[in-house]
Design a protein that fits this description.
Elements (H helix, E strand, L loop, with lengths): L1 H24 L13 H15 L5 E5 L10 H7 L10 E2 L5 H8 L9 H5 L1 H9 L1 E3 L7 E3 L12 H4 E5 L9 E3 L5 E3 L1 E6 L4 E2 L5 E2 L1 H18 L3 H31 L4
Antiparallel strand pairs: 1-2, 3-4, 5-8, 6-7, 9-10
């Protein structure tokens, strides 16, 4: 009986970190398929990141010259992606002073180097697509994933503007979705560069969804630039173990045990 309880206790200890890691993302978000082998998506994501994210957020675990690993030349990096430094070996440092950020947003924007590893790609994809106009918020924006977010919508020109419906008292209207969860009642105010309205009034966001996906792809890459090489090396090791070491061990075992009766 004691052994059984010890086994259960060990299982709980192992499960606890996993549950905490799952809770870090929190919620049920649409699945996004990230392909780190897609260099074009990575390059677009790097461009979006340096143009729209790096103004406020740093990525001090990433150097500009590392972008050569995704197919960019040093000249392309210097010409198109470097706005806060002129040294390609420097880390990605925000153009905004921390003191100013805290004054304007109430808190210093977090470093995004490991955001994809801590939050998960699905969360980031939902977050980027979840902004809506909310006049009750200090920045004028809110988010369906992160309620009362302090960050304004950096990609509103690309996505267009979703707005929340207000009641007679000027407060946001909340409704139940298909899962019974309270969500803000939204409508499209305007479309953007990567969204369009059809004649029947529907808004197609597929182009913006791909735009956001490219940014998330880069954030995932930035969290572990060597991920593809690590996985490729793992496949090589597994092939070596099964193709070489396993037959070798089998025949060696037969040789050692052939005289044992």
């Amino acid at each position: 009986m004691k052994k059984i309880w010890k086994n259960w206790f060990a299982a709980l200890l192992l499960a606890a970190p996993m549950s905490m890691a799952t809770a870090a993302g929190g919620g049920d978000y649409p699945k996004v398929d990230i392909n780190l082998g897609d260099e074009v998506a990575l390059q677009r994501g790097a461009q979006i990141f340096t143009n729209y994210c790096l103004s406020c957020h740093s990525a001090t675990g990433m150097r500009f010259n590392r972008l050569q690993d995704i197919g960019l030349t040093e000249d392309q990096i210097k010409t198109n992606l470097m706005f806060t430094t002129d040294k390609v070996g420097e880390v990605m440092q925000s153009a905004m002073a921390p003191a100013d950020a805290k004054k304007w947003f109430g808190a210093e924007p977090p470093d995004l180097t490991l955001i994809a590893r801590s939050r998960g790609a699905d969360y980031l994809y939902a977050y980027l697509r979840g902004f809506y106009k909310d006049p009750t918020r200090p920045t004028g924006w809110n988010n369906t994933v992160f309620d009362k977010v302090g960050m304004p919508h950096p990609l509103w020109e690309q996505q267009g503007v979703k707005a929340v419906e207000l009641d007679d008292k000027g407060q946001p209207v909340w409704v139940k979705n298909e899962h019974g969860v309270s969500v803000p009642k939204l409508y499209w105010e305007t479309t953007g560069l990567h969204s369009r309205r059809t004649p029947d009034g529907k808004v197609i966001e597929k182009e913006f969804d791909n735009y956001a996906k490219d940014l998330v792809t880069f954030l995932v890459y930035m969290g572990e630039p060597a991920q593809l090489q690590r996985k490729q090396l793992g496949y090589i090791v597994m092939i070596f173990l099964f193709a070489v070491m396993l037959p070798l061990a089998y025949f060696l075992k037969k040789e050692y045990w052939k005289d044992v009766h």
